[in-house]
């Protein structure tokens, strides 16, 4: 099953009602055959602009992020359900890319001093390249004189 991230903006409601909204959303994910990995509450805050939803204008919302796995076929019905829920102001579903396998870290590599680790060497090389580019951008006035003749 693919992983998804759902960004939810709920109306500003008391805590028990927001819990009910989250339970309704979670139950729809479970009914679709999915499971929830994580729910993050980002709190209540002002919206960046006025959001019109279900014949009312909202200037403040409760922000939540839900990470879940669900079959792709059930995603349309889930999105349709969220669009009809009157407590949801805005919802956006993103597909989370698969985790790329990172090279295995060995204890031998970690015990090396930082200057000898391959990651640190790569970072130093990137830093040197940036410094060289900045040095090329600077205007250097080379008059060939070691002193300024018109200054005392």
How do the helices and strands line up, and which of them pair or pack?
Blueprint: E1 3-10, H1 15-31, E2 35-53, E3 56-69, H2 75-84, E4 88-95, H3 107-111, H4 118-137
Keyword list:
alpha+beta, small ribosomal subunit rRNA binding, elongated, 4 strands, 152 residues, 4-stranded antiparallel β-sheet, 34% helix
Task: Explain what this protein looks like in three dimensions.
- Helix content is 34%, strand content 32%.
- With 152 residues, the chain is α+β, with helices and mostly antiparallel strands.
- A hairpin with a 2-residue loop joins strand 2 and strand 3.
- The protein is elongated and about 80 Å long.
Which structural class best describes the helix and strand composition?
alpha+beta
| Cα end-to-end separation | 78 Å
Radius of gyration: 27 Å
Q: Count the helices. How many?
A: 4
Strand and helix order:
EHEEHEHH
How many distinct beta strands? 4
Which residues form runs of ≥5 with pLDDT under 50?
none
Helical coverage, percent range: 25-40%
Shape: elongated
Task: Offer a quick outline of the entry.
The chain has 152 residues and is of the alpha+beta class.
